[in-house]
């Protein structure tokens, strides 16, 4: 009789509790390097309920800069980072015992634009010679891609122009607005806002010039991935749903979806920026970071003199989750 009562107790009380625990919403803390329309699929995944559908609760924090983003990951202040994949190479080169691994790609081109202070008719890259160029942080993907593109057009950034790199990432737009530099490298929507306000003029796209590169990826410490494989897979699945959604919907529809994340930006401007990024293929259409893109990344880093050492694709890139969700 006691055994029957015990079995009844297990069936009625214990098993439902275990099931409820397994189905409980899992929180994932995400640190994004900046807030940008460039990351539209992430915000779509939040607003269209794709994370919620996977049983995930996303706590999104903007950390404003690659160094701060990696500090958040390494100090366990975040579970997942959205940042340039070059940062994982820097951490690995320092001999980390718990490397940061890229598991899902979000963007596949550079997301910055060349903005001129004065209106330039029929811009050509040789017009940068002799100018003052307000660049991005040394060692970061925007700056490395900027130098890569300039060299591609036979401009030596170390001798053919005055390169400014000592301005903090968050202060670059205000520095240019206050008079620093003839040209500046800016993300959207700042580039378009400056154009609307007459503070500058977009003359070229670094994304169009650089080719495909794993510009921004989701990454976590290897220990986190091993301990939370199911959550990482669900996270990747939500991102893939969002990538497909963005690819299948108009710029206006995407802009309307992500508008809550850009309350101070006019809907028409958000739409313009989404259209611009879509046209140049900036949004990855799946989360798989392939070997060719990884090698292109390291070539760009090497050209900029910032590659500490070459790292094999399989060492810092985990495509298992991405390939599984795409295959399904």
UniProtKB/TrEMBL annotation:
Residues 40-249 form the SsuA/THI5-like domain. The keyword Electron transport does not apply. Keywords: Signal. Residues 1-19 form the signal peptide. Transmembrane segments: none annotated. It is found in: Periplasm. Gene3D superfamilies: Periplasmic binding protein-like II. InterPro entries: SsuA/THI5 (IPR015168). It comes from the Bacteria. PANTHER family: ALIPHATIC SULFONATES-BINDING PROTEIN-RELATED, TAURINE-BINDING PERIPLASMIC PROTEIN. Belongs to the bacterial solute-binding protein SsuA/TauA family. This is ABC transporter substrate-binding protein.
